[in-house]
Each structure stands twice: as structure tokens, then as C-alpha cells.
Amino acid sequence: MIKIKKLHKSYPMGNDSLHVLKGLDLHIKEGEFVSIMGSSGSGKSTLLNIVGLLDTHDEGEYYLNGQLIENLNEKKAAVLRNKFLGFVFQSFNLITYKTALENVALPLYYKGVSRKERQEIAMEYLNKVELGDWANHLPSELSGGQKQRVAIARALVTQPKVILADEPTGALDSSTSHAVMELLKEINREGMTVFVITHEEEIAKETDRIVRLKDGVIISDEKTNKSVKA
Amino acid sequence: MFDINRWQEIFQTLRKNKLRTALSGFTIAFAILLFTLLFGIGNGLKNTFKKEFAKDSMLSIYIWTGRTTKPYKGLQSGRQIQFKNDDYKFLVDKFEDKMQMVSPRIERNVLAIYKGEQNNYNLRAVYPQYLTLENAVIETGRFLNMLDLQKRSKVIVVGRLVEKDLFGQLSALGKEINIGGISFKVIGTFSDPGGDNDERFIYAPFTTIQRLYGNTDELNSFGLTYNPKLSVDEAIVFGNQINRAFKEKHSVDPRDQGAIRVANYAEGNKNVSVMMFVLNMIILFIGIGTLIAGVIGISNIMVYIVKERTKELGIRKALGATPKSIIGMIMLESIFVTTLAGYIGLLIGTTILKLLGSSLEKYFIINPSVETYVVVGATIVLIIAGTIAGYLPAKRAARIKPIEALNDE
Questions:
Q1: Does B356 touch chain A (CB under 8 A)?
Q2: Which helix (H) or strand (E) holds A76?
Q3: What is the largest CA-CA distance in chain A?
């Protein structure tokens, strides 16, 4: 599903440049539940941005769903994001003036789905994250856990190939964190590839595979023992 | 552009961000309102100016005579020059192509009597075409015609105030008025924007009066309007030509200022047109100033709006919005708000101008109003400005990496 070969990325810092990713090789198959572990500055967010087509890489190859990603203009990237990727952010990134239902329906708008259909599909996914009763509430009226569940519903609504979650529990307490992780696990059990970025050992342990990143290189890549899936 | 989905999204955004929408709308509406009011008041001043200086036809030239002040060709000074009917022919023959109309005139101060009422009025014996010279408007009946002159009919046309003086609330039309012992029938009444004085005239057929008073071919003066095709400068030259021609005809020293007198409105027109130009420039300056203020206002707000929405735009991009759809959304929102607000400002402005109407006349503002195309033009300028002002930051926002926008807390 995601195949990365010798990926390099550096950011210009004044006259210097900061070499963040130093030749990463990573292969994530369809249906995997992977976490990227690393302290801040390890390059994990950069990796997620590149995988999420929110940023471009300098060197190396990146295949998403078998498609080589290169020379991507903004429009193509937008279409691919909409089609293949669902995002879950640490800070939820819900649009404040839209209700839960409208937030979930927004990716469908950019997919060109009609209003009525959008509402129906969005409602279906809200029910899936057990927030059907909160459909007409604004994000400010929801708890952190609820917001993140809305964001997960929003990520799922276009039926993407991969869910990219950037510290999905970073802003939540431990019990809510656990509930969110359970939800992601359930989604994964339904066959979705889930890609989580975290710096919390607890969270990483709940995934099937942990990739540890340090100073722009992968230092370990192992399956967790509790894994029951192949 | 007319994708219903897109408009639904835009309406929702506007509805849910009422303060923002109201703020940018208010700026535009206020700018257009101010523009309309200032422009309207400027036009009101212009109208006053026009009215004050345009009592009689702007193209008029009047010619009359006096005594010579200098001896010339063996003739003594102090000689009274008298126009006669052949001077009328002379004028028409010599200058026909430069004149729109010309009428000889005999003026008498007369006592007019109707039943118990009587009063002194200025009687003017003229040709039918004289009406255009005075800017008078026939209220009832008709003005003199050529048949009246041919038949030397004893008919008169009286001013609105003559009718009021002598007849009170009754109509003068068809009544007989005694003037100097002779009975004249009123065939029409007129009003005149020139004021009270001009509405106390009595007009009678030139031939009738010439026959009744003295039975000579003498007349007092000429009134004419020059060809509108003449420029102001050409008209001034024309007035001087008339002056010279009559002096030559009546053997008057060319330097004699008393014997032949020409009052040429073109000379006044020249000053009036300069003043009008200055007034127009002031109005234009006010208008452009207001517009610039509006343009700056809406530009600021658009820049602020886009900045405020950076994060939202980043989210939209992460969810699959293309740069084009981001730019399109911001632009359509901006155009929609400015158009609507501009229209509201225009409506309020014109309504206020209408309500003001004549209430500002004592401040020299008459009928303040604005031509529709001017305000519509101004609104379009603001729409374009708002669009450009929205476009530049929108383009930047659309180009910004979603990740940067998302980190923008």
C-alpha cells in the first residue's frame, strides 16, 4: 500500500539545511496497523506529511497504492488525498463553524457528492463512531474524545485506502485515548490500513507493528507480540 | 460558477460567520452610501448653480439702443438711435445662419384692469418664437401664433402672477382685460422659472401693439438665441459682429458705448462653464476619494479574512480541496457579499437623497440625486477591488502547504 525507498527530506534553515529524513525504507502492506514511534525531532511528523501528500520529498521513491508519487502538483495531490487518504490530527482540526455532521460531510463535498447523499453517508459514519445523536452539535460542544471520533468519521467517510493518524491521542486523557485506539483497531479489523504516529509507548503497543525512528533513520521495525493478525 | 453545491457551501460559510460577513458588507455598503450621498449633494449644488445662472435661455443675446455719446461723421452726440422694422430685416438677412430665432420687441409699462382689480405690468409685444427666449412654460391655453400677428388680434398671454393678482383663484383664460382703454382677450397663461418678475409679464402680438401705440414702424429691442452649434467663443464674436453691424448701419462711432447695446449671455456662460467645471472636479475628487477609502477598507478586510481562515483552508486542502476550489470559494464569497452590500448601500443612499429632496434648498442644494450608472459603476469598482484584494491572499492561502496552515494555531 505504502512503499518508500531511500527517502530523503531536508528543510532549508537560513543558509544551512536541516536533514530530517536520511534515506528511509519502509513498506506497509494493505490492512496493516502500523505505528511510527519516535521522540520529537526524530522526523516522524515529516514522514507522515510526505506519506500524506501534504509535503514533498527531496530524494527517493514513494509509491502510494502502487502509484509512483513524483512531480505532484497541488491539484493532483488534492485529488489523491481525497481519494486514498484519511487524516486524523492531534488537534482534531475540525472546522469550528460547521456541525459534526457537516464536518464529516466535507470531504464528500470535494469529491463532488450531492448534498443529500453527503448528509446520508456522513450520518452513517457518525453512527459508526457512535455520535449519531451529536450530529448537529458544533465542535465546541463536544468533548475531546468526541471531537476525535468526529475526525475519525471524517477520515473514513471517503472510504480511503489509508488512515493517517498524527498523535491521535495526544490531546486526550488515557481512558479516552484507549477508546480512540479501540476505534482505530476496529477500523483496522475491517481491513483498513492504519498508520499512526505517536511518541507514547502505550499507544504504539496497541498497534500490530512498531517502527522506531531516530534522527531520521529507522532504528527498529518489529511486530508486537500481541498481534493476532498476519 | 453556478454549481449549486458550491453556492450552498458559500451560503453556509457566510451564514455561519455572520460577524465577518456583516463587517465586510458594512464596509462596502457604507462606502457606497457615502459615495451616493456626497455625489448626490454635489449634484444638488450643481443644480442650484445651473438654476441661478440659467434663468433665461443660456443662448440669448439682447440688443437695444440709447443716445450716442460721441459725434461721428458730422452727426452730433446725444442723438437717440431708434430701431425700426427694417432693422429686423437687416438682422435676419445678415445673420440668419448664426441665429436659432430672433424676435423684435416693444416694451410698455401698462395699467391692466379686470373688473375691480387693477395693477401695473410690463407689456411686451413680441413674435411667437420669443417664448423660447424666456424659458417660460405655458400653463393653460397657448402662446401667440403667426395668425395673431397677421390679423393683429387683440389677444394677450399673461404670467401666472398676473392671473393671481387680477383673478384670484379664478382662471384668466378667455377673459377680457382692459389695457390702456383697449380690451384684450387672454388666450394663455405661463409660468417662468426666472422668478416673480418674469411671471408678471404680459405678452401681446408685436404687430397689434405697433399699430395701436403710435402706428409707426418703430420698435425697442431685439431678443435672439444664437445657433447652439456656435461655441461660447464664437458666440461672443457673433455678439460683437452684431454690435458693429448696427453701429455702421446707424452711423455710430465704433467706440461709442451708449447708442447700440448688446447683452450677450455667452459671456456669462463662459464664466458659468468654468465654475461648472471646477464644481465637477470637486465632485469627482470627492467621489474618487470615497471610493479609494472603500477600496482600502475592503482590501484590509479581505486580507484579514483570508489570514483568519488559513487553518480552515489548510483543513479543506487536507480533505481534498484543490487550490482552484479554495480561490474560487473565497472569490465568490467576496463578490457575493460586495455585490449585495453595494446594492444595499445604493438603495439606502438613493432613498435618503429622495427623502432629503427639497429640504436642503436653503443650503443651496436642489434636487440632490445621482445618475444610476455612476453608482453602479462605483459599486463595480468596489467589487473588482474586493475581488483583487481577496484574490491575492486567497492565492497565497491556496498555495501554502496544508501542513503549515494546520500548524498555524
A1: no
A2: helix A74-84
A3: 54
Question: Which residues of B are less than 8 Å from A74 in CB distance?
Answer: 322-323, 398-399
Q: Reduced to 3 states, what is the DSSP secondary structure of residue B120?
A: strand
B8 touching A (Cβ < 8 Å): yes
The ipTM of this complex is 0.85
Residue with cell 475491517: A190
CA dihedral sign, ordered A38, A41, A42, A47: positive
Size of interface A-B (CB pairs under 8 A): 71
**Within chain B, which residues score under 70 in pLDDT?**
1-2, 52-57, 358, 361-362, 364, 403-405, 407-409
Residues of A in contact with B12 (CB under 8 A): 98, 102
What one-character-per-residue DSSP string does B36-54 give?
HHHHHHHHHHHHHHHHHH-
B11 CA: distance to closest CA in chain A (Å): 12
A45 min Cα distance to partner chain B (Å): 10
* Total count of residues recorded for chain A: 230
The C-alpha cell 464664437 sits at: B234
pTM of the model: 0.64
Domains of chain A: 30-58+74-227 (3.40.50.300)
If we measure between CA atoms, which residue out of B28, B1, B27 comes closest to residue B327? B1
pLDDT digits (tens, 9 = 90+) for B5-46: 778 778 888 887 788 788 888 888 888 888 888 888 888 887
Q: Which residues pair with B189 in a beta bridge?
A: B140, B158
Dig out the grid coordinates for A15 from the structure.
543558509
pLDDT digits (tens, 9 = 90+) for B197-240: 888 899 999 999 998 887 788 899 999 988 888 888 888 899 99
Residues of A in contact with B401 (CB under 8 A): 54-55
Q: What sign does the CA torsion over A73, A78, A81, A84 have?
A: negative
List Cα–Cα distances, B204 to A203, B115, B292, in angstroms: 111, 20, 58
The rounded radius of gyration (Å) of the Cα atoms in chain A is: 17
Mutate to test the interface with A, among B15, B319, B400, B406 (most CBs of A within 10 A): B319
Instruction: Look at A107 and B398 and tell me if their CB atoms are within 8 Å.
Output: no
